[in-house]
Write a structure and sequence with these properties.
The structure holds 2 protein chains of 2 kinds.
Chain A lengths: L1 H10 L37 E2 L1 E3 L2 E3 L6 E6 L4 E7 L3 H19 L4 H17 L1 H12 L3 H22 L3 H4 L5 E3 L2 E5 L5 H14 L3 E5 L6 H12 L7 E3 L4 H8 L6 E5 L2 H11 L5 E5 L5 E4 L5 H13 L11 E5 L3 H13 L19 H16 L3 E4 L14 E4 L6 H4 L6 E7 L2 H9 L3 E2 L1 E5 L3 H10 L4 E4 L14 E2 L2 E2 L12 E3 L1
Parallel strand pairs in A: 1-5, 7-8, 7-10, 8-9, 10-11, 12-13, 12-18, 13-16, 15-16, 18-19
Antiparallel strand pairs in A: 2-3, 4-5, 6-22, 11-21, 14-15, 17-20
Helix pairs in contact in A: 3-5, 4-5, 5-7, 11-12
Chain B lengths: L13 H11 L6 H13 L2 E3 L7 H12 L13 E4 L4 H7 L6 E5 L10 H14 L3 E5 L2 H6 L2 H15 L3 E5 L8 H13 L4 E3 L11 H18 L4 E3 L7 H14 L16 H15 L12
Parallel strand pairs in B: 1-2, 2-3, 3-4, 4-5, 5-6, 6-7
Helix pairs in contact in B: 1-9, 2-10, 2-11, 3-4, 5-7, 8-9, 9-10
Classes of the chains: A alpha/beta, B alpha/beta.
GO molecular function (chain A): oxidoreductase activity, acting on the aldehyde or oxo group of donors, NAD or NADP as acceptor
Pfam families (chain A): Aldedh
Family (chain A): Belongs to the aldehyde dehydrogenase family.
Chain lengths: 507, 299
């Protein structure tokens, strides 16, 4: 036997392992790379120019002006949208009023529900097309528009369709009546989803709508207008007017609108609040945020690192509830930062239509410049900046995921909302210190807590002044769950049962 | 080996682990990267036969397949190792002479591990004498679940010593460990005791390897590497039959530990039926059509 073994050894080419323990960090580049996996755009059809959708028709803007929409991933022109002026907004409000009085508020609630269910189903049926358009128009990765934006938008319509004929259960012993015409202004970060958050509860409660999408991302709203026609929705129930801030202010200041729903920046929110003060127009404001994400020593660290990534790099950080301020308990700070950096190296930044892309393009040139200014501010404030080493496409507005360490509460990059893939990291020692730092901000939209202890979750989450606190997860949305802010992050709630309330008067 | 220190085994959030796996499974692999992944996976297989009815003939044929998985594609790599019961090591040794394919043997009273330490040591020394390059040992799950970590640790240390030059793969039998925290704890313990590889399962019980369990073990390997600079290998075993699954495992490795682990030296599949599906997919990538399974040898 031993003879055999020896012979074998003699004949054997060098076998076995070459134990190498290179003294380097993990290497995520090289060797095996993913090939490009672009989503085909054959199934979508983008017209050269889009008109306004008023009273069930696509109509040219009265002044005949159009503005260009740019694909942020290529810097190429995508299409152009009509600029609605005062006359167009008046027409849209008039159509909405007519539809409110003529049909929508008088048909049975069950019938209203059917229309909304139909819209939900149509979104599902054309989900792929909506996802592609959303990514082309806004720069977000197809993985997110396909798996998050579009399914959630449909889910909101399904959810609120269910409430349409059950309002007496939503408000027991009260009679819920619609307000009338709702003016709705939505932002560019989740164009279709924000449309769903606004339109679904408004329709379910019997209101009609004039909605203005953001000027850089109006495409899916106009595609949604097509769905309204396909669903046979009565004319004028949903009106879509495109345009910039001027158009928005025509809506806000219109005297025949009963409710304003706005999602956007705190700055604009304050202007809206001022102009509505003293009027009887109801309003809800969903504004900015600078969410704290708190990681305790006993947290499931590898999952927390993943949660940090989801909290700040989801949708290129264009998320008002992003966890943009990270607080790590000091004992685990080095470990968390090391793991975070290694994890960032695996993020794929690039073409939004590639199925493997994790981080797409910054929504617009303007936003791209704004983020870069903040990066400069951060460096000038003395913070240490770390960015991942990936290559960026030559064309398009791309920003590397970025961490800032060595920052303090007084820094501008810790105080102000950046709305990009930029994270600031601070440490804390005690639970009280963590809570105090988390609350030390003018904002209060959302936050996260990571710990293995249930009691700590309840303690911290009930002491952080935020509309939402996620525990051991982040950026999870569901139509049944209310969403909204404290302090400068807004007033009112959207989603869930709470989301019906701003659209009714109770008798 | 280190001293045993389980003081800082980290919490594992089950929902988070499973979400991470689901997200990685949505990676799209095509064209060149797919061929590369399939070929890589093939080179990482431990071609295994562990049945009571194994015969020298069967083992010899398996070794032939290990050398040349598919005669029509001679350019394909051989598999990493052939894994057999202790009494078949000599047969495999003879059949694989002159190749760089390793011989692995399940030692330590596989699959239950229900035997005395002396018997396990003796069995291990014997398979190494007979020509095994790698020893796959099972841990004493009963002692582990009882909390008798010292016992499990000492046992691995003793077997590692008995292995001499041979490499030691420690099978945790994760299907019996109940929680991800236990998987993490057992992984850390095995690495501290000197394991060269940690391995999910014997393949004799269900569930065998799963992707979430593998991810937890890869994360444990990563922590151990951060702390000690020593690279430990990973071997999911049992239940991996499809090329698609194999690629998903490679993605877990690529995005958790990086490219240094994407080699048969640090990653193995304990899966025999996987080989034919890999071959079928490779042929499909090269010719554009699927061939009948009859074109691929069963062993």
């Amino acid at each position: 036997m031993d003879d055999e073994k020896q012979t074998a050894d003699a004949e054997t080419v060098e076998k076995g392992f070459k134990p190498s323990s290179p003294n380097s960090k993990l290497d995520f580049n090289g060797f095996w790379e993913y090939d490009d996996a672009p989503q085909s755009t054959d199934s979508v059809d983008i017209e050269e120019q889009y008109n306004l959708f008023i009273d069930g028709e696509f109509v040219s803007p009265t002044k005949g002006r159009y503005f260009e929409s740019i694909n942020p991933a290529t810097e190429q022109s995508l299409t152009s949208f009509a600029e609605a002026t005062k006359q167009d907004v008046d027409n849209a409000v008039e159509a909405a009023r007519k539809a409110f009085e003529g049909s929508w508020s008088t048909i049975s609630a069950k019938e209203r529900g059917k229309y909304i269910f139909r819209l939900a189903r149509l979104i599902k049926e054309r989900a792929r097309e909506f996802a592609i358009l959303e990514s082309m128009d806004g720069g977000k990765p197809i993985r997110e528009s396909r798996d998050v934006d579009v399914p959630l938008a449909a889910a909101h319509f399904f959810y609120y369709a269910g409430w349409a004929d059950k309002l007496e259960y939503a408000f027991p012993a009260r009679k819920a009546e619609p307000l009338g015409v709702a003016g709705q202004i939505i932002p560019w970060n989740f164009p279709l989803l924000m449309l769903a958050w606004k339109i679904a509860p408004a329709l379910a409660t019997g209101n009609t709508v004039v909605l203005k999408p953001a000027e850089s991302t109006s495409l899916t709203a106009l595609k949604f207008a097509e769905l309204c026609r396909d669903a046979g929705l009565p004319d004028g129930v949903v009106n879509i007017v495109t345009g910039a801030g001027q158009t928005g202010s025509q809506i806000v200041n219109h005297d025949d609108i009963d409710k304003i729903a706005f999602t956007g920046s705190t700055k604009v929110g304050k202007i809206i609040k001022k102009s509505l003060a003293g009027t009887d127009t109801k309003y809800t404001l969903e504004l900015g945020g600078k969410g704290p994400n708190i990681i305790f020593e006993d947290a499931p660290i590898d999952q927390a690192v993943e949660g940090i990534i989801n909290a700040i790099f989801f949708n290129q950080g264009h998320v008002c509830c992003a966890g943009s301020r990270l607080f790590v308990q000091e004992g685990i700070a080095d470990e968390v930062i090391q793991k975070l950096r290694d994890r960032m190296e695996t993020l794929i930044v690039g073409d939004p239509l590639d199925k493997n892309t994790d981080i797409g393009a910054i929504n617009s040139e303007q936003q791209y410049n704004k983020i870069n200014e903040y990066l400069e501010v951060g460096v000038n404030e003395g913070a240490d900046m770390y960015q991942n080493s990936c290559e960026l496409p030559e064309k398009g507005y791309y920003c590397r995921p970025t961490l800032f360490t060595n920052v303090s509460q007084s820094n501008k990059i810790v105080q102000e909302e950046i709305f990009g893939p930029v994270l600031t990291i601070q440490t804390f020692r005690t639970v009280e210190e963590g809570i105090e730092k988390a609350n030390n901000t003018p904002y209060g939209l959302a936050g996260g807590v990571w710990t293995d202890k249930g009691s700590k979750i309840f303690n911290v989450s009930s002491n952080i002044r935020n509309g939402i606190v996620w525990a051991n997860t982040y950026n999870k949305f569901d139509p049944t769950s209310p969403f909204g802010g404290y302090k400068e992050s807004g007033e009112g709630r959207e989603g869930g049962l709470h989301g019906l309330y701003p659209y009714v008067k109770l008798k | 080996m280190d001293t045993l220190d389980l003081g800082q085994v980290k919490a594992v959030d089950q929902v988070g682990v499973e979400e991470r796996v689901a997200r990685l499974n949505s990676r799209s692999i095509k064209k060149e990267s797919k061929i590369q992944a399939l070929t890589l996976a093939l080179s990482m297989v431990d071609l295994t036969t562990l049945a009571g009815m194994d015969t020298p003939g069967k083992v010899t044929q398996l070794c032939q397949k290990a050398k040349e998985p598919h005669a029509e594609l001679p350019e394909l790599p051989s598999v990493a190792a052939v894994c057999v019961y202790p009494n078949m090591v000599k047969v495999a040794q003879k059949a694989l002479r002159g190749t760089d394919i390793n011989i692995a043997s399940v030692s330590t009273s596989f699959p239950s591990g229900m035997n005395t330490l002396e018997a396990k040591i003796e069995e291990t020394q014997k398979v190494v004498r007979d020509g095994a390059d790698e020893v796959d040992m099972v841990i004493s799950r009963g002692e582990f679940l009882k909390g008798n970590y010292e016992y499990v640790y000492d046992e691995i240390v003793a077997i590692k010593e008995a292995c001499g030059e041979a490499h030691l793969k420690v099978i945790l039998e994760t299907g019996e460990l109940q929680t991800y925290e236990n998987v993490r704890k057992a992984s850390k313990l095995a690495m501290q005791a000197g394991a060269d590889f940690i391995k999910t399962s014997t393949g004799k019980m269900s569930p065998a390897a799963t992707q979430p369990v593998t991810l937890v073990m890869l994360e444990a390997i990563r922590d151990y590497y951060y702390n000690t600079d020593r690279m430990v290998g990973m071997k999911p075993a049992g239940g991996i039959r499809k090329a698609k699954q194999a690629i998903q495992y490679l993605i877990l490795v690529k995005e958790t530990l990086g490219s240094q682990w994407l080699t048969p030296d640090y990653f193995r599949f304990g899966a025999s039926s996987l080989v034919n599906d890999l071959l079928m997919q490779i042929v499909k990538q090269k010719t554009g059509v699927y061939q009948s399974p009859d074109y691929f040898s069963n062993d």
